Amino acid sequence: MVNPIMIFILFLGTAFLFALFDKIHRKFSFAILQLVLLINTFIAGQWLYKFVFTSQTPVMIFTAGFKPPFSINLRMGLEEAFILFAVNFVGLLSALYLSKSFKHSKVYPLVLYLMMIMGVNGIVMTRDLFNLFVFLEISSISTYALIALKENEQRLASGFKYMIASGLASVFFLLGTIFIYHITGTLNIDQIITHKSFVITSLGFLSVFTLMMSLIIELKPFPANGWALDVYQTTTSGVVSIIAVANSAGVFYAFYKLLPLIPHNQLLFIAGIGIVSFLFSNLIAIKQTDSRRLLGYSSIAQIGLLITVTALTRYLHVKSSTSLFIISSIFLSNFIAKAGLFWIAGIIKKTHIKEWAILRFKPGLLIIFGVFIFALVGIPPFPNFWAKWDLIRFLALSKLHIWIILILLGSLLEAFYLFRWFGSIVRSEQNEEQLLQPAYKTVPIIIFFLLLIIISIGIPIHIYQFDILPLLPIVGLLILSIFDFLPSKLKAIISMIIIAGYTLYIYPVLSGVSLVFAFIFLAGSFIQLIATMSRKGTDKGFFPLLVGMILSMGSLLVARSSLEFFFAWELMTITAYMLVLRGRKAEKPALLFILFSLAGAYLLLSGLSYAHVINFSLVGLGTIPISAHMLPITAFILIVVAFLIKVGAVGFHIWLPGSYAEAEDDTTSFMSSILSKTGIFGMLILLLFLLKMNMHHSALFTSMLGWIGIFTVFFGSLMAIFQEDVKYLLAYSSMGQLGYIVLCMAAMSHLGWVSGLYLAVNHLFFKAMILLAVAGVISRVGTRNMYEMGGLIKKMPYSFISVLIGIIALSGVPPLSGFGAKWLIYTALLEKGWYFRAGLSFFASAIAFLYLFRLIHTIFLGQPKPQHQNVKEASPFFLIPQFLFIFAIMAISMFPNLIIKPLSTFINPYFASTIQWQGNTLYSSLGYWNGNLVMYVTMGVFMLLLIWLIISIGRVQKVKQFNIVFAAERPFKPTTTHFAHNFYAHYKRALGTFVRPVTTGFWNGVGEWISSAAGSIRQIYSGNGQTYVLYILLYFIVLYFIMGGK
Amino acid sequence: MMKDILKRLTEKFPISEIEEQRANMIFVTMPKINAVQCISYLKQFEGFTHLVMLAAVDYIEDGIFQLTYILHNYELHTDIGIRVQIDRKQPVMESIHTLWAQARTYQQELKEMFGIDFPGSPDIDEPFLLEGWQNIPPMRKDFDTLKYSQETFFPRPGRKHYDPQKYMKEKLYPDKEPE
Amino acid sequence: MKKDNRLLPNKDMPDFERDYFCDAHPETVKPLKGFIEKFLNWARANSLWILGFGTGCGAIELRPLMTARFDMFRYGMAPRPTPRQSCVFVIGGYASIKTLKRIVRSYEQIQAPKFVLALGSCTINGGMYFDSYNTINRIDHYIPVDAYVTGCMPRPEAIIAGLRKLQELIKQGKAEKANEYIENFEWYKANQKKVIKDWNMPDYNW
Amino acid sequence: MDTPLVLKILYSLISLAVITIWGLSLGGIVRKIYARVQGRIGPPFWQPFIDIIKTYGKRTAVTHGIMFFLGPVFRIAGGIGTYLFIPAILGSTIFSNFSVSGDVLLVMYFIFFGQLGMALGAGESGHPYSAIGVARGLAQMTAFEVPFALSIIAIVIQYHTLNITTIVLAQQGSILNWTLFTNPLATIAALIALLGMNMHNPFSVVLAPQEIPIGPPTEFHGSYLALMQTNRGIFNAAKLVLYMNLFFGGATNIFALIIKTFSIYMISVVVGVSFPRFRTDQSIKFFLFVPTLIALLAIIILVL
């Protein structure tokens, strides 16, 4: 083992000799610098290895041979080794990144650079207060010098502000140190901590307060952090990444070291400081357009979060290994991602975030950028995700509700601006520009990227003991990424094979309802994958994401714990987001999608944390501990709202139409017919728990859920009829149909659930069919506006047939399967006694006719347009799945027992059956229905009449589109003859009041409020050094009194 | 009142002829070049804001078309007619659709029926009543409508013509002697 | 459902409009034989649906037929708003060229068997408009007429009488002018095109 | 049930023939009554039959495409199907039709079958008036279905069944057992909905012969029209039979059926002759207000 003191020796020695080395050659001195950092990294790495993999205990190193307090001692433990390793490593990579500027600069920057890293090393290791002060000074002075080195007015100014602020902090630190020494007579931190009872005295409190405050100010808390932001904005990216990560890491660790000094009851205040910083920095970041400043805010926010988490875990006496894991995960995510992002900023060389769009032409860099963003937000499998999971769980356990809300709110704000940024890059219209990607700049980024990936995969496997099953979606995604160069058709086949294989793999564990959903998720996807073969070229990126999404839906089914469920849920969300984002105009809708999805995920997370007693998965149903008979109401509400967001229930629906409609056409059919059912699946599990466990007012809740369901149906259908865009129409229609399923599920009866599942399966069939047909049509006519189509029945008869069958099945007209759903729903509702809901759903189902007729009329009937003269039938890849679905619909229409019987057996374990079969007739307690006979009668009557018509009609002349009776005139333009635009103007006049965009208005209002709040809060940063100093002082004083200083 | 208007008009425009049909209705004749200026003056300064009609008469013997613009003043309840004579060989007149948008319809009709052109008037060449008319404009006196009808419309043989006056007398008072 | 192969030339139509209109040549459909045709003719006679298209001043005389005073419904006659569903076309007096175009179009859109009743002198020989540059003289040169009602204008009683006469003709199987129109299609078309100068429709409006 | 299939079909055909004749005659009779009210002689009551024969007798026809051709078939299949799923006469084997196929929900939804098919056929004709008519018709339908559905729900609450035969059975015994008297509010709401269903004034804007020449069927003629006219008779009668079963105690013999359906029909006829026409949005608002409230009241009373 190398003595850690070697680190200092190396640093100091080389720094002193640097001028000498530099005389030889800059290359030589630079190599020495690299070497030093490399060796130090190696030393730290070696210690880290020992701590992690062997039972090495922390080591104290005494410098002068005396024991403290007479000498300075250093500590090398797991935490220290970890941070040292990180800091030196980032120093090394940063040096590499800066190699060009180092080459052309004077010698001082190199020395300063070394000094700064050494300072941080010192801060981390030392256990002496005064020594800590010295190292703080070293690092901050060298930082200042680095900032101000390049003679640039802005940089000088920001460097100056930095110096003032850190000078102020040093004063506080020194004051605190003096007081403490005065009280305790020692400067050794460990000894001070052991005598920490002195803090209760007012002087003791003041001393500790000043000490901590100085560190906190160095950690740039809101609002006393204006100086830091200027630094982030103006300094070169190589340096700023060091300041933002390494420096902060050091100071943070100092804070961590001294935290035990804070009395237990004051810890929440410290956490409060952090959370304020976290929330407000994220809030203000929304308004930023300067990329570095935005990253700066994000860094400050993350540090704030770290402070909060550290204080809270200490407050809650969380097991040290766990708290270490949480803190280090957050720390690492920010550390790696932030450094990487600042480095990327150096390559882009653009300040405005919109100008980053040139990244779009560098797929490799874009992927890395995306991964860093995801890591910051806490998307699985990145470390932040796991940290968040554990953290929220602990907070929920200790009932710190406010903290959960604030942390998740801040995270959501952060996700908002980061995803907005990402989306604007992916979907921007900017032209390609030359972008220099020198190797010395790219290599550090790639190394960090790989590091992040390794850590991310390591965590679930090592810490959470994940086996391969929940990780399969990622595996699938990676496999397809490897084959991404192949043509689409081949990739579609590979995807189908993967999904088939996956299905076979998980088939043994499926049973009952999970079988139904497996059918929807996997078989449905399998068939729809045929349609994706119509994609041209290689179409990079689509299939990996799609397979990732489908397999994560499969993962939901076989999840064995809440964590696995949540993991799969988040994976599904993020892959779906990426798929939506692929749509041409999907920037805004995709952002809404991910925001609402993440909000839903956070609700789910907190709900699962509150309901920690249950294992939220199908498997978990069987293992409810007897002691836990109460399902907390909060948990129930949180979880149910999360799922309602997913199904797009009314009030939370505004993300739905846009993201369904603006996604690529074949993706939409996946989203609408399959992905939306995951919400239903989740809700089903929740309701099953509700059945098994008691909850206060559960009847009231399901009743409310029923109302939400029926209003979703009503408003979804009503909105659908006023859409001009076919995909918006279908999106609203999906919303309505899912409302029915929610309604049925909420009925909590045998028939209700049977009808819900029946509808879920049926919805898969018809919605996928209609959407694929429409996708085929759009691919041919090149527009989504229905009034721009017309008369396509002659050109695309097969698509017409599938839309026809689809709308009959959707509308519930006998004899097709839709009527089965309607019959089951009404019988279930009437049986349940939900009469008004039944009435309203009847109204909604009548309204559905309106939009369905509009759909088929304006596209396929009416006047063909001249520009569609040469339109051909859609590609067979679109048609094959449609016809498979038609076959399925026909089968279950002819023989409803094919589907209702198994569904009812699946539900039997939960509810007593109220339906019975007599031959083909299905009897409920209220009525009966024989789908088979209905089909025969209808078909018989229809055929007889058709034959009679053919016989009686005589000579028939087939005529063309203008051969119509046009009040003795003739039509001149198909466009004006086709009645399609604003089809239901009269309906709008009658019921338009119901479709005023109230919800959209509300959410827009929320958005505007947040944005303007951010805007006005931002005003406090005047850019003026004195003001910043004043803030720091005020901050200090105010906090002092808040925390109870006397 | 009317006198004043007339007085002002004569001062401003070279009016060649004034015909007072009624106390509140006068017709003035003026050269082609002044007509639209005068109409515009009447509309803007004398309160004749309403274009009652625009009509033409074919004076084939004089070789002219006479256009008559009748304007109405709502306050005074008076009408004034502006008569303009234009050459039959060059039947072109300035358009007044800029003053009254509805004038385009009158002008369109005049173009179709008399062949008087109003350059700049919207849709002036579109058919107004007649679809696909290929002959000379039918309202011109040199167009023989009977001949055209007989050539075109398959007249049913056996049609008899009576002088209405004589015929009615014979039918109603067969006993009376012709005077 | 015999498919015919004769096509209309439609040479007066611009090329781009050809795709919009059916260009099949109309064919005659012979009446059935014997009792069935008689029965059908009886039914046709007792269910005369009049196209509600007032083509001239005579249209005003048609309206009283609906009133209680004349009550054409008792004979099974009824006005019908679309040519597709009507069988009697009443030409209500003078027909200007512009109207003639619409008359031809509507007449061709009525499905066989179809009957035409022409009212007033104007339809017979031009009446008082005989010398007009814009009014045709004899409607039967353009579409076949089953019965005329004289007068200027005929009173509603006269129109009813005309319709009753038409009923008789139908019952006797003598109202087969629809086939006559097809048989003399070229002649009728030539006459129509002689007066309708801007022929912007297909030669037969299906 | 136990009846052999062939016999069953035969019975249904008889039943269908009877209802067709009665439905068409009903139309003729009403026209006669209209005429008499207006002081005219009016057409004979068999006029609808003559019209249908004549329309079938048209020699030529045109078609705009396959859906146009099938539209009327859908329409009449919807009408016949609706009738066939209703037990017309209580206790009669001949008139029980195929009511074993389903309950009142099936009938309610089968009504849409014809309308949807017709709408599609009319749509393919490419005629804007057809589309406007359909848009109006569907819009109005959504509105009058609300009170109708609510009153059916009220009946279900009252009789605890969706089975039409059971509902009829429950109304036997005395005239006071009829839903009309046991649940007058639901009956009133449903009868107002019937006005819309029959598209009589004031809800006749769908057909509006003056503005949009008779709306959806503008382009239909010949045999198509004949099928639709036949359907008008059957469908009308079917709806009346349904109303009779649900609200007026059903019928135990053919005469009761004739008298009751005639009386029910007269209600809408009387209203129809006395009112002018609503605009579409007005009729939607009306249906969603007055009859819906009445029906809701009916349900509330029953639940309480």
Task: Enumerate the spans of chain A where pLDDT stays under 50 for 5 or more consecutive residues.
Answer: none
Mean pLDDT of chain A: 86
Radius of gyration of chain A, Cα only, in angstroms? 32 Å
Give me the Rg of chain D, rounded.
Answer: 19 Å
Strand content of chain D: under 5%
Largest sheet of chain A: 3 strands, antiparallel
Structural class of chain D: mainly alpha
Task: Describe what this molecule looks like in 3D.
The complex is a heterotetramer of chains A (about 1050), B (about 180), C (about 210) and D (about 300). Chain A has about 1050 residues and is mainly α. Among the domains of chain A are: about 1-125, no CATH class; about 130-255 and about 1000-1045, no CATH class; about 265-465; about 465-510 and about 515-535 and about 540-695, no CATH class. Helices cover about 70% and strands about 0% of the residues of chain A. Chain A is built from 41 helices and six strands. Chain A has a three-stranded antiparallel β-sheet. In chain A, strands 1-2 form a two-stranded antiparallel ribbon. The two termini of chain A are about 50 Å apart. By secondary structure, chain C is of the alpha/beta class. Helices cover about 35% and strands about 10% of the residues of chain C. Chain C has seven helices and five strands, in the order αβαββαβαβααα. In chain C, strand 3 (about 90), helix 3 and strand 4 (about 115-120) form a beta-alpha-beta unit. In chain C, helix 1 (about 35-45) runs antiparallel to helix 5 (about 155-170). The longest helix of chain C is centred in the C-terminal third of the chain and has 16 residues, at about 155-170. Chain D is mainly alpha-helical and about 300 residues long. In chain D, helix 8 runs antiparallel to helix 11 (about 280-305). Chain D has one domain (about 5-305). At the A-D interface, helix 32, helix 33, helix 34, strand 5 and helix 37 of A face strand 1, helix 3, helix 4, helix 5 and helix 9 of D. Strand 6 (about 955-960) of chain A pairs parallel with strand 1 of chain D, so a sheet runs across the interface.
How is the topology of this model organized?
The complex is a heterotetramer of chains A (1046), B (179), C (206) and D (304).
Chain B: H1 2-12, E1 17-22, E2 25-30, H2 32-45, E3 50-59, E4 64-73, E5 78-87, H3 103-114, H4 145-152, H5 164-172
Parallel strand pairs in B: 2-5
Antiparallel strand pairs in B: 1-2, 3-4, 4-5
Chain C: H1 34-45, E1 49-51, H2 59-62, E2 78-80, E3 88-91, H3 97-109, E4 115-119, H4 120-125, E5 147-149, H5 156-171, H6 177-183, H7 185-195
Parallel strand pairs in C: 1-2, 3-4, 4-5
Helix pairs in contact in C: 1-5
Chain D: H1 5-37, H2 47-56, E1 60-63, H3 66-84, H4 104-124, H5 128-159, H6 164-170, H7 179-182, H8 184-198, H9 222-247, H10 254-274, H11 280-303
Helix pairs in contact in D: 1-9, 1-10, 2-9, 3-4, 3-9, 4-5, 5-8, 5-11, 8-9, 8-10, 8-11, 9-10
